[in-house]
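Practice problem 4.
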């Protein structure tokens, strides 16, 4: 069976690909993450996703579309991740349908930092909307293995989820401690 795998980054792909290959799927990767901030980070993740695909001998579509402005403009006041998952999974499902894949899934289901049930629910919604199967698997069971593989292969491991907010949240705690008021 041909499966289109939405690919968020390199490290999340290792265990996901391993499991899918074990199940005899014919994998094609689909990198579509238009709100990763800053642009250099976006490129770094894209390049490292490519390296992982090469290691597995997997072909991939790399959508170089970068649209942080549109993301920020259309962002609802609450639940930014819900909106972010929707953008990525909607296009993945539509692309899978258009290109005659049997199924789609996402490496987001590997990360223990993501809202697993929300991703699953959104993917199922687009599965019905586009009439294309969604393959669900809880790839989190391979969290340690995936990290180990990424380290052993010198794959870039990001320090935050991706968008500008997650970048700020990652570093703000450290910075807050030291800066109260600065006049220089
Ligand atoms: S934290 Fe991650 S999933 Fe949530 S909006 Fe930012 S990039 Fe998307």
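Answer key:
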């Amino acid at each position: 069976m041909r499966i289109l795998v939405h690919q968020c980054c390199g490290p999340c792909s290792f265990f996901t690909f391993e499991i899918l290959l074990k199940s005899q799927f014919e994998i094609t990767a689909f990198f579509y993450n238009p709100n990763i901030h800053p642009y250099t980070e976006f490129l770094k993740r894209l390049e490292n996703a490519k390296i992982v695909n090469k290691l597995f001998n997997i072909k991939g579509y790399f959508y170089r579309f970068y649209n942080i402005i549109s993301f920020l403009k259309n962002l609802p006041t609450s639940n930014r991740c819900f909106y972010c998952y929707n953008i990525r999974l909607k296009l993945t499902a539509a692309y899978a349908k258009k290109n005659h894949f049997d199924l789609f899934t996402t490496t987001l289901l590997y990360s223990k930092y993501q809202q697993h049930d929300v991703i699953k629910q959104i993917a199922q919604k687009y599965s019905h909307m586009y009439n294309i199967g969604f393959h669900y698997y809880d790839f989190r069971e391979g969290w340690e293995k995936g990290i180990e593989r990424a380290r052993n292969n010198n794959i870039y491991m990001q320090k935050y989820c991706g968008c500008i907010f997650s970048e700020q949240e990652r570093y703000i705690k450290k910075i807050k401690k030291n800066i109260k008021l600065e006049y220089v």
